[in-house]
Amino acid sequence: MNFIKKTIFAIIFVFITAVAYAGPVNINTATADSLAANIKGVGKKKAEAIIAYRQANGPFKSAEELLKVKGIGPKLLVNNKDNLLISNK
Q1: Residue 55, Cβ neighbours under 10 Å: how many?
Q2: Could you read off the pLDDT of 3-27 as tens digits, one per residue?
Q3: Alpha-carbon distances of 17 from 3, 12, 47, 71, rounded to whole Å
Q4: Judging by beta carbons within 10 Å of its beta carbon (0-12, 13-18, 19+), is residue 30 exposed, middle or buried?
Q5: Domain count, the chain
């Protein structure tokens, strides 16, 4: 019985984790809520900083340009490299 409970818990955990990081996010069009929800290590404050940078400097030309945003470092970029899209659409 204990094995069944642990198995069910593991399945639920995997499902919740998959939903939490649903997929790639376009850093040129995403809202602050979407950025915070889809980029590991980005909360509301960093998401708002990304949008403020985007509004002041225009669309991002590359994911590496995120390093110019206060609070965004190389580790965050590496951890999210497959989850970031760059598009103006």
Answers
A1: 8
A2: 676 666 556 655 554 445 557 999 9
A3: 21, 9, 20, 24
A4: buried
A5: 1
For residue 55 the two structure tokens come to: 């509004």
Residue 14 maps to which CATH number?
Answer: 1.10.150.280
44 or 17: whose pLDDT is higher? Answer: 44
Longest dimension (CA), the chain: 58
- DSSP for residue 46: H
Q: How far is it, in rounded angstroms, from Cα 19 to Cα 75?
A: 23
pTM of the entire structure?
0.73
Q: Give the domain range for residue 30.
A: 2-85
